[in-house]
Structure formats: C-alpha cells, structure tokens
C-alpha cells in the first residue's frame, strides 16, 4: 500500500516495497505464498480487498509469517493493527514481521513496541 506521492519519490512505491520484501525473503530462503497489495486504498480502515483476503488466508493458516515493508502499511489505526496482529496472526500461529521496524511479536516488549509504533502510524 502506498499513500502519497512523497512516498513514491522517497522509495516507498508499491513496486519498490515488493522488491525489498522479495529480496528479504530470498535472503531468508522463504517461499512466498502470496503478495497482498492494496494500491490506492487508505490504511485508515480495514475495508480493503487484499487485506480481507490476507485475513481469510491467515484464518485458514495458509502461511506461517506475514511480512510487511513497514507497520503502517498494514494499518494506520492502532486498534486495527493490534487486532490484526494479536487476534488474527498470533492467534493462528502466524509470526508478524516488519522490514523497517525490528520487533518480536512473541515477547511482551515486542508487543509494546507494536503498540507504540501503531500510535505514531495513526498520527501521520
């Protein structure tokens, strides 16, 4: 998901995000199940086709890790971010990783970091 022209100019275009995520997966020797892209949709709500597909696939446990370029690419709402990570991903045994932010969702400190980062994403 890309929100502004600024992000495109600063290297946050959807294609550049995909390239960086793909390179990371290659380095880790991970197989990519699917790339979920919501171009042109606001991250301020969860009514996005690819996000809805991601949630359905997560509940069916079709993958074991969700990797995003940056936490705010998942959602700009703190409530939605925490719900997705805790109630959809972690509940279904799915690890959540962000390429730009370093946190471990399995630790209390990592969960606190997600809370803090999602507050800042909401303010942007």
List its traits:
DNA binding, two-stranded parallel ribbon, 51% helix, mainly alpha, 124 residues, 6 helices, Rossmann fold, Resolv_N, Resolvase-like_N_sf
Overall pLDDT, averaged? 84
Q: DSSP helix count? A: 6
Measure the end-to-end span.
Answer: 15 Å
CATH class: Alpha Beta
Q: What is the oligomeric state here?
A: single chain
Number of domains: 1
How many DSSP-defined strands? 2
Strand/helix succession: HHHEHHEH
Please explain how this structure is put together.
The protein has 124 residues and is mostly helical. The protein has one domain: Resolvase, N-terminal catalytic domain (Rossmann fold), CATH 3.40.50. The protein is 51% helix and 6% strand. The chain is built from six helices and two strands. The protein has helices at 5-9, 14-28, 49-59, 71-74, 78-89, 108-123; strands spanning 65-68, 95-98. The protein has a two-stranded parallel sheet with strand order 1-2. Helix 5 (78-89) runs antiparallel to helix 6 (108-123). The protein is globular, with a radius of gyration of 14 Å. The two termini are 15 Å apart.
